[in-house]
Request: fold
Amino acid sequence: MPAFRSTPRRSLVALAALPLLIGALASCGYGSQAKSGEQKVAPAGAKLSAESVRVGYFPNLTHATALVGDEEGIIQKELGGTELKVASFNAGPSEIEALNADSIDIGFIGPSPAINGYTKSKGKNLRIIGGSASGGVKLVVNPEKIRTLDDVKGKRIATPQLGNTQDVAFLNWISEQGWKVDAQSGKGDVSVLRTDNKVTPDAYKSGSIDGAWVPEPTASKLVSEGGKVLLDESSLWPDKKFVITNIIVSQKFLSEHPDVVEAVLRGSLKTNQWIGANPEKAKASANAKLKELTGKPLSSEVIDSAWPSLQFTADPLAATLRSQADHAVKAGLLKQPDLNGIYDLGPLNKVLKAAGEPVASDAGLGAK
Reply:
């Protein structure tokens, strides 16, 4: 069970982590064995239907909505007197495990573990209730060994974990080049090496890999070591948008405390708006929370490079999640999943309407 601490207004607490099942700062997934109406903000001191809400997220820039929303107290403000308790995770499977064990109520998480958690429970444990971030994934290579995309053939390229979101994307890209790779072993026309994001920069410096398909800030850490961005994954998607972080909730909590869920979503939306209006302050806020969680902030060089490639959005970009699942099936890492009902965007669209924002689509995968 994770240890929680409350985050009153300005969150200055240390977040406790669950045991690390798979060490990766990226969203982890398919192949892992390891987590309408007017809105009224509750007045200060007033409680909603729950005494507290337990929220999990990663110490990762792709989870900046949670980092900043916690650090700046924006989410807590929307909760009023309902206490925000937070826990930090380093891998998707451990966060899903916590949700299944009723150790957290809401989580920020990548698409792959969300799909895994939903399908393995036969649609009974979670719902995706909103988006958080898009983009922030790049193919970074050693420019002395790889100068063009064609040069990737025959090289050693790292991904964070077998079957995780970036691994699936890279395997799909390889297939589209007409090259062959065995998904499980990573052997073939390209050598796909599953490498923990924490050690990928050292692997690059030592020459044991020639590049990596990784999320931020790992991509920018490689650039700071002399790597070159050969491909930004966003260029492969319509409108250059694809989901990298979703917000999920246990179905039990959603049923019992819809007002609390709406408050967290409202806080997330307001956090994204604050990030957009205050990019420099937002970077500093996210980095302050990263320092608190990991003991070390990102360098200015790394965070300044990473930040522009991320888009923070409440839209879960549901059509891209369907495509990501199809890519995993194509790679042989996932049986064709039944994703009907994985989304419940009712609370989000209620919040969006109240804020005068366009409603989000569930791409036909909404709860009936």
User: Anything to note?
Assistant: Residues 8-44 have pLDDT under 50 and may be disordered. The radius of gyration is 19 Å. The chain is about 35% helix and 15% strand.
